[in-house]
Amino acid sequence: MDVNALALNVDIPPELRWQDERRGEVFELQSITVRLLPDGSLAAKAYGRPVAGGRGTYVSFPVRRSAEIDALIAEAASEASRRWAAHRGL
């Protein structure tokens, strides 16, 4: 069986959210998409919405590295693993 990708989305708790800028627009990073790579390591991107509101795009950014964010990603991956292992089929 060749599984190409396993991914999960995790909300960033309000106290851990941060802001970043792209093309002059400030975004609040609200979620992280975590992918399990074929070698067993994890890759992650943060996604956010424009602080100013409006119909801005949901844009990806590098994940800010901190002990709290790293723990959030590790805990989310472990929880996803438990849920996948306990699946009940279609």
Account of the protein in words:
- With 90 residues, the protein is of the alpha+beta class.
- Helix content is 21%, strand content 39%.
- The chain contains one helix and five strands.
- It has one helix spanning 67-85, and strands at 6-11, 19-22, 25-36, 42-50, 59-62.
- Strands 1, 2, 3, 4 and 5 form a five-stranded antiparallel β-sheet that branches.
- β4 (42-50) and β5 form a beta hairpin.
- The longest helix is centred in the last third of the chain and has 19 residues, at 67-85.
- The chain is elongated and about 45 Å long.
- The two termini are 18 Å apart.
Secondary structure: elements and pairs:
Blueprint: E1 6-11, E2 19-22, E3 25-36, E4 42-50, E5 59-62, H1 67-85
Antiparallel strand pairs: 1-3, 2-3, 3-4, 4-5
Compose a concise summary of this entry.
With 90 residues, the chain is α+β, with helices and mostly antiparallel strands.
Helix content: 10-25%
The helix/strand order is EEEEEH
Q: Any idea what the radius of gyration is?
A: 15 Å
Give start-end ranges of low-pLDDT stretches. Answer: none
Strand tally: 5
Mean pLDDT: 92
Biggest sheet overview: 5 strands, antiparallel
The separation of the N and C termini measures 18 Å
Structural class estimated from helices and strands: alpha+beta
Shape: elongated
Count of DSSP-assigned helices: 1
Strand content: 35-45%
